[in-house]
Amino acid sequence: MEAVEVHAVEAHGVTKSFGAVRAVDGLGLRLDRGRTVALLGPNGAGKSTLISMILGLRTPDTGTVRVLGGSPERAVRAGRVGAMPQTGRLIGGVTVRELVGFVQRAHASVARGPMPSTAELMDIARISDLAGRRADGLSGGQAQRVRFALAVAGAPDLIVLDEPTAALDIESRHELWVAIRACAERGATVLFSTHYLEEADAEADRIVVVDRGRVVADGTSDEIKRRVPGRTVSVDASVLPDPSGLPGVLSSEVDGRRVRLHTTDADATVLALAAAGAVRDLEVTGASLEQAFLTLTHSAPAGTETPEAVR
Ligand SMILES: Nc1ncnc2c1ncn2[C@@H]1O[C@H](COP(=O)(O)OP(=O)(O)OP(=O)(O)O)[C@@H](O)[C@H]1O
């Protein structure tokens, strides 16, 4: 009997090993439809392996992965999943318009509803100005937008992007994100892996942090930042007394004319700074996503239980 289709992706107890390396280790995950989800994790955390199982390219050793209520293979075959590989040359001898049109026609046979025209698709992917260019003669950023257009040519429900902006300059990253957002706004679920934490912070509704093959945090960016105790108190460096004598302060760093104090007790630190007359340009902030990420992915010794997910 067909399963009730609720989640874009559902993974239960998934493991995958390569020889002695356990790339994915009892991972569980549920992605609601229509969200944009970032997959974060240090090198070797298991992100690409997980993505390859979501795309049906690898089979879990144990556990199950379901995509849009069925097997990953079935969702992919039905044209409901669009994926963009990390790299790959575009074929030569054709224009961008011909290539996009060809891939779109190939999808038309399994289309479940109206698909955007080739012109609309090229507009979404921000490649209209490249329509007449040879597909094998593009810059890295241009080629990546064409790959994105090919990934979404069949108007997929789930778009899976493995490090989509790796090696792109800031302008190309921005352009690609405009395109990805346009698809998300049309209702697609977007799952992307990245090493750019600011990208996850800015673009994702939800962030899943993976370390050593397991989910170690799962929530909004703010929820994940709140997982890390402590605050950062920053003041003008010229008025600061010796930070080592301040209550609560674990470490400090100078950034231009400001000093950032990482403290376990922001109130006590601020009171001591005030008593020393050193509160010029005072600012108190929570942990950054980078601090949270580093804490979450380096604090748990190998083999310990997965910490409670945020939700
Ligand atoms: N085909 C393979 N053969 C052997 N080991 C592999 C293979 N694919 C992945 N691994 C190993 O599995 C672990 C997880 O790799 P994976 O590529 O999934 O991590 P990742 O989080 O995507 O890393 P990165 O951010 O560096 O891309 C690593 O230790 C990696 O060396």
TrEMBL record:
GO cellular component: plasma membrane
Keyword Cell membrane: no
Cellular location(s): Cell membrane
Positions of transmembrane segments: none
Organism domain of life: Bacteria
Example GO biological process: response to antibiotic
Membrane topology: Peripheral membrane protein
Signal peptide: none
Keywords: Antibiotic resistance, ATP-binding, Nucleotide-binding, Transport
Keyword Transport appears in the UniProt entry: yes
InterPro entries reported in the protein's UniProt record: AAA+_ATPase, ABC_transporter-like_ATP-bd, ABC_transporter-like_CS, ABC_transporter_ATP-binding, P-loop_NTPase
A molecular function (GO) term: ATP binding
Stretches of the chain forming a coiled coil according to its record: none
Residue intervals of the ABC transporter domain: 9-237
Protein name as annotated: ABC transporter ATP-binding protein
Lineage: Bacteria, Bacillati, Actinomycetota, Actinomycetes, Streptosporangiales
